[in-house]
């Protein structure tokens, strides 16, 4: 039985919630001109934003978009600061309630359910099963269908004003990279008529992407009866000692995903023996050890070299350099990387 969550709107628009949301939205961006301008009259601006939400005259602003390659090309879309405040205000209220409906092994964009916790679980499953079916969804964020997403959220929430705000945020998404997949029942124009894509970079997009695949997670666990399963954004894995079970599961998964207008990657999605090792969240998981993937390590070395140049040029403080190096080493420490870390320290003159 699905329980729809209500009584959210008044909590979202409370001034204290908007104030807390503003503090979250400015983290790491406090000294940017748009944030400084907003905070110069923060209370006045928050009250204005609150009034717009109450009167339902609020409308999102224009996104600022740019492309990155880390490791693959992505279109990143940054919402204006006041919109990010609204995103945080919304998520502070609805996320804790909706996340209670998620399966345990849904990771990424969740407090205490991040990369390294997902890695630990993946290692456990991989070392207790003979086979893995590992899949990746093609162009996931650009493919998310707006009508299906809104329908999913409407089944979980029952507050009309909260749903109206969610619909507004989704409808105001900027155009993403085009996806032209066809599904059963489509005609020639269907892919052009359906709005798709969520902007990578939005807090709401990260959460909505988890909601979008929540039904799929339950399908795998409850219908396919695959208990050793986990998902990290659009990368998911099923484990079993029975190869035939996973072969059938792949067919069932492909059929289910068509109902969400999604497809798994034909090359990256593979069924193989766990003894051969598997790549996951930047690591190589082998039966007897964990390695940092070479491409991940290369990007880390490049970032370190860039930080060293900034330090030497006086653009970065010693304490900030130390903080970032420590954070990278914490990431490396989840692999069998003691000698690697010693080598890196020696290369930057930290060991004699």
TrEMBL record:
For this protein, the record's SUPFAM superfamilies field holds: DNA/RNA polymerases (SSF56672)
Record bears the keyword Zinc = no
Under InterPro entries, the record lists: DNA/RNA_pol_sf, GrpII_Intron_Splice-Mob/Def, RT_dom
Q: Which GO terms describe its molecular function?
A: RNA-directed DNA polymerase activity
Domain annotation Reverse transcriptase: ranges: 1-285
Q: Does the keyword Transferase apply?
A: yes
Q: Which UniProt keywords apply?
A: Nucleotidyltransferase, RNA-directed DNA polymerase, Transferase
**What stretches pass through the bilayer?**
none
Domain of life assignment? Bacteria
Q: Which PANTHER family match?
A: NUCLEAR INTRON MATURASE 1, MITOCHONDRIAL-RELATED, PROTEIN YKFC
| Name the record gives this protein | RNA-directed DNA polymerase
């Amino acid at each position: 039985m699905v329980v729809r969550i209500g009584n959210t709107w008044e909590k979202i628009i409370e001034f204290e919630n908007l104030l807390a949301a503003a503090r979250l939205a400015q983290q790491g961006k406090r000294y940017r001109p748009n944030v400084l301008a907003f905070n110069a009259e923060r209370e006045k601006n928050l009250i204005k934003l609150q009034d717009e939400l109450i009167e339902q005259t609020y409308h999102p602003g224009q996104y600022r978009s740019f492309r990155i390659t880390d490791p693959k090309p992505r279109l990143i879309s940054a919402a204006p600061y006041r919109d990010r405040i609204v995103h945080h205000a919304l998520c502070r209220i609805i996320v804790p309630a909706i996340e209670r409906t998620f399966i345990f092994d849904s990771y990424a964009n969740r407090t205490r359910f991040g990369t390294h916790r997902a890695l630990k679980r993946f290692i456990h499953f991989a070392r207790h099963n003979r086979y893995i079916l590992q899949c990746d969804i093609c162009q996931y964020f650009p493919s998310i269908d707006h009508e299906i997403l809104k329908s999913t959220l409407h089944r979980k929430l029952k507050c009309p004003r909260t749903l109206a705000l969610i619909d507004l945020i989704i409808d105001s998404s900027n155009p993403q990279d085009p996806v032209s997949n066809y599904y059963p029942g489509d005609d020639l124009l269907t892919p052009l008529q359906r709005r798709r894509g969520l902007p990578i970079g939005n807090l709401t997009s990260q959460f909505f992407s988890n909601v979008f695949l929540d039904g799929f997670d339950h399908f795998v666990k409850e219908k396919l009866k695959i208990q050793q399963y986990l998902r990290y954004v659009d990368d998911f894995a099923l484990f079993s000692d029975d190869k035939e079970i996973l072969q059938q599961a792949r067919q069932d998964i492909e059929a289910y995903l068509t109902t969400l207008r999604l497809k798994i990657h034909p090359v990256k999605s593979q069924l193989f023996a766990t003894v051969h090792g598997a790549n996951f969240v930047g690591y190589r998981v082998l039966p007897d050890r964990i390695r940092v993937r070479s491409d991940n390590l290369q990007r880390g070395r490049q970032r370190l070299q860039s930080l060293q140049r900034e330090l030497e040029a006086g653009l970065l403080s010693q304490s900030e350099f130390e903080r970032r190096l420590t954070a990278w080493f914490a990431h490396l420490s989840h692999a069998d990387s003691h000698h690697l870390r010693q080598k890196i320290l020696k290369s930057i003159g930290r060991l004699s």
